[in-house]
Amino acid sequence: MTLQRLTEQLVGVASHEDETAAGETVATWFDGRAQTRRDEHGNVFARRNPEGDRSLAFVGHHDVVPPAPSQTTGEGTNGDYVVETRDGRVYGRGTADMKGSVAAAMLAVAEADADALAAADLELLFVSFAGEERGGVGCRAALADGFAPDYAVVGEGSTGYSAPGVTDVAIAHRGRRASTLTVAGEAAHASEPEAGVNAVYRAADAVSAVRDLTPPTTTVQGERVAGTVSVTEVDGGSAWNVVPESCSITVDERTVPGARADLAGVSDLPGVSWSVEQDLPPMACDDPAFAGAVLSAAREAQADEESVAGVDDYETGARPQHVVKPHATDAGWLADAGTTCVVCGASEPGEAHTDTESVSLGVLRRLRRIYDRTIDEMTAV
What we know:
The chain is of the alpha+beta class. The chain has helices at 3-11, 20-29, 95-110, 114-120, 137-144, 199-212, 263-266, 288-309, 330-336, 361-379, and strands at residues 35-38, 44-48, 54-61, 84-86, 89-91, 122-129, 151-154, 169-173, 175-184, 188-189, 217-220, 223-226, 228-236, 242-243, 246-255, 272-280, 283-284, 322-325, 340-343, 358-360.
């Protein structure tokens, strides 16, 4: 099956509410190609040379965010997904995030040379998680069940970061911590404000304290990773003539490996308590040799492509680089559990989760070559 056809097949399976059919499609495709299983969480695992002493996993997810009405054949978001291929791109929900990269990884793992894997004592895995769009629930469940590859290439988007049309290798990404500061006061009639304690005034002090926080920064293999902290919602008060007794503040924090903003310090203010609703971990690749091997694979794949096309951009600087990805991915959970990770995938900035989501077939073919060459790099060790 061609990469284009497999991408179209995967994209055509609805997976924003029930991921069962998408997981079954992936697992069925691997029948006879690898040792395959689906776990109780909906994750799909395909293994080659399972007795290998080292392990390399290509990781994706088969769930998607809800489609736009234009991306389905039925009323509203009901019906089958619309899949269209034109002008060198495949359009449809999940093309960029991330069924195109999943298809490239499936083919790379299934067609890897068995003798080379055995000689290198390398177990090769393909994994597609469920529930990535719901906070990485499938990945977290797999880790809790003992999934622990030595190395992983996560196929989330890394194309177009250093330059348009270049597929880079992300050696780090930011995490996300979503917090709520709950501020308590004491209600009173607004005509006698001194009889109460205004929770909104206390909240104003808390907002000011958050604004004064210095977001942490760090470096990963020479690349700067910068965090952010932002107040995104403030909700307080019950009526125009009542001194408010409560107020809540939502804080969005983009975290960096090894450091967090001091939101706990803000909760030391009078009446302020702090809770965390979501904490998606950042990722930092802890092995420069592995990061270098994948980057070498990316550069060789792009150089081959440009040589065939008769262009010379590779020599003028438009070549893959190590980059930092701003978004959290399942690589954060994997790295947190001890797996050495990088992110390398077809999606370009601005494509995922959009009403016109698409992926370039040329980039998918390049990604397939990157994955093939990464396997070659790992089996040559």
